[in-house]
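Kindly review both lines to help learners:
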Amino acid sequence: MKSFDLVRPTIADILQPGFSTPIGAPMIPPYPFEFRNVEVMTIVYRTTKDAVSKHLPPPLSPASDIVMVHVYNMNDTDWIGSFNESNVMIDCTLEGTNVAGGYSPFLFLSSAIGVSHGREVQGQPKKYGEPKIEFRDDLIVGTIKRNGIDVFTATMPYKQQKGDISDLKAYFDFSTNINLKVIDHIDGRAAIRQLTSRKLTDLKIHECWAGPCTVELRPNAQAPLFRLPVTDMLVGCYWRADFKLIKGEIVYDYLDEEKKG
């Protein structure tokens, strides 16, 4: 049987990918890790191309005026347990490449581990918040709360029409998530400036329902989703699935490009 006594790490241990602190009780999960029985409410709406463009770091470009907001009840996750999360995504492409997907300007979740992993490893702009999905009689309601304010409220009918996850991918490939990873050295110099990309794998859909949706955005200076205003509501989906998070890739390195220039 493996011993779980505290062992002082070697330099080789520290240099290994996936090493995390504190020693003996690491914070960051190593890849891959699994999410089971995840409930997702996905809301798709139109905003303005100008609003999308303002949220995209160059050399990313807007591919449409579509916004996709996912609210998750993460019911059973390796390392993390049960928590709630939200991911706001906008349609984009990386100029001069075939890289395309959903860039995340905002993510909010109720897990300290999730916030740390997202920011340290993937470069996701995660903040603590309180997203959740609720069933209120014949209505599915998704909310994102930050600072006691429901900055996002979405509704759709409760399981009236069967859907298909491929219908969502017709808007853009949200399975490819692009993020801006920004980390400084302790002395203030730029250490990491990258665009990263990651995908979810081993997706197993248990159920999927679609229908008309409503979206309400409330202003909050620390969670400014209102800067992606709604011009047209498109579709809502409620789906339940298992999936796995694996290693991603660096699709653009600003510091490397600066050296080349």
